[in-house]
C-alpha cells in the first residue's frame, strides 16, 4: 500500500497521520545518533529512512544529485531535523538538504548532539545556512533529548517559526564541496 493510501486510510479511520520528518546528518560520524533518533521516535513520526544519497547516486552531476535529494527526501516531509555533530557543518549534502528545505518553506530544527564541542567563543559549530535561519527566527534549535514530549515541543516550535517564511535566509551559494 502506498504512503498516500495509508494516510488516506488513517484519515478515514479517524487516526492521526504521523508527521513526516527528514533527518539530515553526517553519515560517517553521526549514523548512531540517527539510528537512535529513528528508534526513539518512529512511533510518533514517520522518520524518513536513511537513503545515504552520497553513496546511492551514481552521478557527478550536481543538478541531478540535488533533484534526487529534493524529490526523494524533502518533498513530502514537513520538517527537516539537522543532527549537528562535530563535522556536520562541513558537509555539502547537509547544506543542500537545508537549502532545499528552505526553498520548500518547510520547518527546520537543529539538534545539538552530545558530541558537538563549543568553539573558542563558547558557540556551537552549525552549518552556516542553518545558523543564519536560527538567527533570523525562521529555524529553531535544541539540545539532543530522548524525551518524546521535549522533542515534540521542539518540533512544534520549529513548525510555528516556519509560519514566517519572510524570515528565511537562503541567499548564500550552495556548498560545492564538503570542507575537509
> Could you tell me the mean pLDDT?
82
CATH top-level class: Alpha Beta
Q: Over the alpha carbons, how many angstroms does the gyration radius reach? A: 16 Å
Distance between the first and last residues' Cα: 42 Å
Look at the helices and sheets and give the structural class. alpha/beta
Q: What is the strand content?
A: 5-15%
Strand count, sense and barrel status of the largest sheet are: 5 strands, parallel
What is the tally of beta strands? Answer: 5
Tally of discrete structural domains: 1
According to CATH, what is the topology? Rossmann fold
Characterization of this structure:
The protein is of the alpha/beta class. The chain has one domain (18-167): 3-Layer(aba) Sandwich (Rossmann fold), CATH 3.40.50.450. The chain is 43% helix and 13% strand. It is built from seven helices and five strands. The chain has helices at 3-12, 27-41, 53-56, 62-74, 92-103, 128-136, 148-161, and strands at residues 20-24, 46-47, 79-84, 107-112, 140-143. Strands 2-1-3-4-5 form a five-stranded parallel beta sheet, sandwiched between helices. It starts with a helix and ends in a 19-residue tail after the last helix. The model is unreliable at 7-11 and 50-56 (pLDDT under 50).
